[in-house]
């Protein structure tokens, strides 16, 4: 009986010891830090890194993500990689109307601030702080930025600029209030109500029509310049051809005149006499000289 009792005691001690050991081990995930609170000592200034830690059976550890996290605010389930999801889009006012924004916010807790956050928010961990407070604050702060821009700014022309200004504003607010750094706040999609959609489409169409009209105008100007240049080129070709033709005519006429002058200048009395002599010899002509005339015959 004594042996049995001893075995039971040993087993109980082992179980209790094992339970205490298990309860004393706390895990911190990758990309997180852990804040430790114990009875009697309160919050410890030194945080825990990723891994398993022996902190004592009465200690509590709350974790905060210090690597980049993403908060999605959207009415499109595919933005969450899910088939169904609650609608968390942002209804935001603008200068001239209201829009629905689907956004992603990339953030992380600042490691040096997590101990004070544990105290400030009564031991809430990072996930609880984001779900219960930060998300609502982000939506409210976005709505403070969007009225600075027009519907068209947010819908098309200055979407990147709007995203940048929202990022900077969230950083200035969340850093101080929640110890959170915002790496980026990006607009995924902008949705308009039917009336605004019609106005935007009409404005876009007017812009496209104006751009087309300007393009047509420039094309017409360019075509006119091309036609003018072609006409001037054709006229220049005709002028050159006419000048060339006139020059050829002048050269031919000059050549003919020069030839005639050469022929005329070559006919002399001696040449005539020589030709007549050749003719007499060739045809047997006889020249008879009378008292008043000279007659030439065969």
Summarize it.
By secondary structure, this protein is of the alpha+beta class. Helix content is 55%, strand content 22%. The protein is rod-shaped, with a radius of gyration of 54 Å.
Indicate the CATH topology of the largest domain.
Tetrahydropterin Synthase, Chain A
Task: Tell me the distance between the termini.
Answer: 189 Å
Estimate nothing, just give the exact number of structural domains. 4
| Name of the top-level CATH class of the largest domain | Alpha Beta
**Quick check: average pLDDT?**
80
Number of strands: 11
Q: What sort of overall outline do the alpha carbons produce when their principal axes are compared?
A: rod-shaped
CATH architecture verdict of the largest domain:
2-Layer Sandwich
Number of helical runs?
7
β-sheet strand percentage: 15-25%
Multimeric state = single chain
Structural class by sheet pairing and helices: alpha+beta
Biggest sheet record = 4 strands, antiparallel
Can you write the helix and strand succession as a string?
HEEEEEEEEHHHHEHHEE
Radius of gyration: 54 Å
How would you describe the overall organization of this protein?
The protein has 298 residues and is an alpha+beta fold. The chain folds into 4 domains: 21-65; 69-192, Tetrahydropterin Synthase, Chain A (2-Layer Sandwich); 194-266; 268-297, no CATH class. It is built from 7 helices and 11 strands. The strands form 4 sheets. Strands 6, 7, 8 and 9 form a 4-stranded antiparallel sheet that branches. The radius of gyration is 54 Å and the shape is rod-shaped. The N and C termini lie far apart (189 Å).
